[in-house]
């Protein structure tokens, strides 16, 4: 039986057991999507990424939560680039991943891996009572991006204090719910948390794709093109963002914590 290379990588962190863990699977041949979903459920991480080389030298990339395939994932893309480069599986050149959200590139910039992702701007929407009840808060400023509900709270402390009702949030018609506020820590411009029971992830530790919405949102509020976000989950993680028109550069570090094979 062939052994299929597998790595577990903590993304958007410079130390193990922090940031957001993702599994990365290297495929030498096409795989059944149902099998990929089973593997992702077995890994039981926010996302499992599957990478396969294309004839043109680029790479296919797909992401699965334990429950569904998703259209966009930042931390598992960063984890894939880190795993493939550090293991010597691919040359240390910029990577072009063909995904359900188009072609995404990854390149090194000093200590950072930078991901070129599409922006998903936020538009204001009326208050959604179900979301407030699910978050256990009484007030917030509401918006929606292509994927998520975005709720701005009045303080860093309010974001950290949220204790969601996941059953109620799971009924919200969106991929997930982001809560955010300006940061009390001068190292960061804003803080956030991400809840996605709709896709099988109660709270995601660090959500790169959420920053495709948070970057343009906070840029309009703070008047900055380059910012640093802190995702205030129990593991915590740092995402650097830079706006380039309708694209967002997401920067972060990663650490491999496990190497093995599916048998």
Largest sheet data? 18 strands, mixed
CATH-derived architecture of the largest domain:
Roll
CATH topology of the largest domain: Diaminopimelate Epimerase, Chain A, domain 1
Rg over CA atoms, rounded to whole Å, is 18 Å
- Separation of the first and last Cα atoms: 7 Å
Measured as a percent range, the helix fraction is 10-25%
Low-pLDDT runs of 5+ residues are none
CATH class value of the largest domain? Alpha Beta
The succession of helices and strands, N to C, reads: EEHEEEHEEEEHEEHHEEEHEEEE
Query: Which strand-content bin applies to the residues?
Result: 35-45%
Number of domains: 2
Count of extended strands: 18
Individual helix count: 6
Structural class: alpha+beta
Which key features would you list for this structure?
about 260 residues, alpha+beta, Diaminopimelate Epimerase, Chain A, domain 1, 18-stranded mixed β-sheet, 6 helices, 18 strands
């Amino acid at each position: 039986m062939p052994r299929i290379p597998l790595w577990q990588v903590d993304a958007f962190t410079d130390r193990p057991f922090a940031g957001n863990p993702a599994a990365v699977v290297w495929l030498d041949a096409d795989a059944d999507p149902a099998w990929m979903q089973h593997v992702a459920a077995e890994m039981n991480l926010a996302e499992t990424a599957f990478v396969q080389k294309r004839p043109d030298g680029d790479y296919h990339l797909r992401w699965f939560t334990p429950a569904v395939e998703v259209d966009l994932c930042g931390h598992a893309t960063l984890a894939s680039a880190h795993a493939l480069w550090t293991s010597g599986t691919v040359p240390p050149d910029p990577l072009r991943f063909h995904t359900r959200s188009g072609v995404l590139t990854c390149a090194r910039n000093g200590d950072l891996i930078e991901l070129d992702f599409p922006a998903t701007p936020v538009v204001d929407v009326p208050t959604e009572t179900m979301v407030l009840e699910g978050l256990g808060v009484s007030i917030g400023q509401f918006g929606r991006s292509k994927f998520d509900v975005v709720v701005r709270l009045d303080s860093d402390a309010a974001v950290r204090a949220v204790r969601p009702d996941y059953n109620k949030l799971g009924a919200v018609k969106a991929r997930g719910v982001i809560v955010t506020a300006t940061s009390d820590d001068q190292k960061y411009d804003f803080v956030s948390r991400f809840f996605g029971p709709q896709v099988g992830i109660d709270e995601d530790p660090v959500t790169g794709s959420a920053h495709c919405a948070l970057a343009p949102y906070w840029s309009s509020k703070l008047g900055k093109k380059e910012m640093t976000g802190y995702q205030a989950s129990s593991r915590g993680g740092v995402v650097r963002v830079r706006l380039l028109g309708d694209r967002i550069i997401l920067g972060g570090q990663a650490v491999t914590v496990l190497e093995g094979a599916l048998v």
